[in-house]
Structures are given as C-alpha cells and as structure tokens.
Amino acid sequence: MFISKNTFKLLRFPFSFFLMPLFLLAMSQATVLSLYKTLSAFVIIHFFIYPASNGYNSFVDRDEGSIGGLERPPLPTRQLFYVTIFLDVAGLILAICLVNYLFALCLFIYICASRAYSAKQTRLKRYAVLGFLTVVFFQGAFTYFTSMTGIAEGQLQPVLSTFFILMACSLQIAGAYPLTQVYQHQQDLKDGVVTLSYRLGYNGTFLFTACMFLLCNVFYYLYFNASQRMLNFFVLQLFFLPVIVFFCWWFYHVFVNPAQANFKNTMRMNWVASTSMNLCFIVLYLINHY
User: Which of 70, 266, 37, 232 is nearest to 147 (CA)?
Assistant: First the structure.
C-alpha cells in the first residue's frame, strides 16, 4: 500500500522522541533485561503504537492550526484512518510474537484509552480534568508499567518503591502536558475542547507545571532512596537543570508578553526537556548496568 506524503506527516514519527523518556527510565531501572525483547518493545511502542495514536488524533480533529510536531499540518484523508488501524494491529501481533501476552494486553488497553480520548463518540479530551487525568495516567504510570512488562516481565513488584516511581512518572507527565496545550487555547475552543491549560490561564499553567515538577522530583527522591540508588537521583538533578533554566526563561517572557506562549517556544520546551531526560535515563542505564 502506497502511503501519501501527507499521511506519513500526520503519523508524526519524530514526536515519539518526546514520549521516549519513560521507556528509557524503565530500561535504566530494570535489574535484568532481555536485549532482544527490549529492542522489540521499543520499536513496537515508538514506531507502531505512538504514530497510530498521533494519526488517529489528527484524523478525528482535522487540525487547521499547529499541533505537536507540525506547525502547518495537512488535512487528513481516509487513508490515514486505515494506516492507523494497520499500525495498531501490526503492533499488537508483533507484541504477542516477539515480546509477551501481558505486554500486548497493556498496549491494547493503551490503544483503547487513546481512541477514547480522541474519538467523537467519547471525546475525553473535551473535559479539562478528565482528559488531563487520562493522559497523565496512561502516558505516565501506565506507560512505565507497560514498558517494564516488555523489558523485564515480572520485575515490577507491588512494593512501596514501585508506587513512588509510578507516581513520579505520572507527575512528570502532569507537569509537561499542560505546557503542550498552552498555545492551542483558541484552536481547542473552536473544536469544543476546554483544556486544563485554558482553565488555568497562561500564568496559571506555568505555576501548575512548576508544582507538578516539584512533586515529581520528591517522588523520584523517595524512589531512588528506597531503591538505594541515590547516585541516580543526583544525576537526575544535573539533567533537570537545562529544563528548569529554559522553563524559567519562557515563564518570564510569557509573564511579560502572553504572545510568547506560542508553538515555537512550546516545541523548544519539548526538545529541551525530552533531550535532557532521554540523555539522563541513558546515562542511568549505563551506570546501573555497566
């Protein structure tokens, strides 16, 4: 099947880079992992499931303004819908064949949640709090859990440290997600979507994000302390610095001029945060395994 250039664009494969940190975190914290299953799980999540989710969201929303990763998105066609179905089904089949059934089940649940978030019939994204909580849970704690089932099945034990790391993951998304909505207020309202960022306002969004990141850091401390991996925590603080510096710089400029809450600065924030966190968790992987 020939995939058109516009369809390929709307799958937004590069956007998977922004969603990569929690998989790399899980990889860094697994005590024993299968390289074959880890690589398989990584490819399935980032090259099948995430692009399918991106594409379906674009197909339903038919965005005319900037969206994550695309400043001028093309209009979707029916082909995009069929490609997203193909990617989801192929991803699930590969998960069963190459990884394990629990991993495949988790992906299926994630796909259902992603569809419920975007689909016109359910449209969870139109509710400020419910939509926010859906993203925070499924892209946070649930993504970490799913990644761990693919990387090292059975290693995530029901102990207090597990609760700490799952909370840290969700709070990390809780801080980042409203910032991705800060430039879309009017576009979302035209589509009948009232986001948490809109409810909070520009300054409120930044203050909320600061609180979520602070709580996230507290839970990272609790986790690494309970796991006796405090070196990991100190390395994390080092990589948090560029994120904090850019966040404060952006907040100042938005406070002075709300027009600075735009697509360009949002993408800059995404790149700084994702690059810092991805590098951080790769370093933690090397520390813990080598």
Answer: 37
User: Does the global pTM surpass 0.85?
Assistant: yes
How confident is the model over 71-108, as pLDDT tens digits? 788 888 899 999 999 999 999 999 999 999 999 999 99
Evaluate whether 63 touches 183 at the Cβ level (below 8 Å).
Answer: no
Q: What average pLDDT does the segment 176-189 reach?
A: 89
Cβ-Cβ contacts under 8 Å for 158 (sequence gap 6 or more): none
Q: Which amino acid is at 100?
A: N
Name the region of 70 (left: φ>0; alpha: ψ -120 to 50; beta: rest). Answer: beta
Taking 3-state DSSP, the helix, strand and coil percentages for the chain, each rounded to the nearest 5, stand at: 80, 0, 20
Cβ contact 85:48 at 8 Å: no
Three-state DSSP at 70 gives strand
Q: How many CA atoms lie within 13 A of 131 on its CB side?
A: 22
Nearest Cα residue to 122 out of 140, 136, 134, 108 = 134
Cβ contacts of residue 170 below 8 Å, gap of 6+?
136, 137, 140, 141
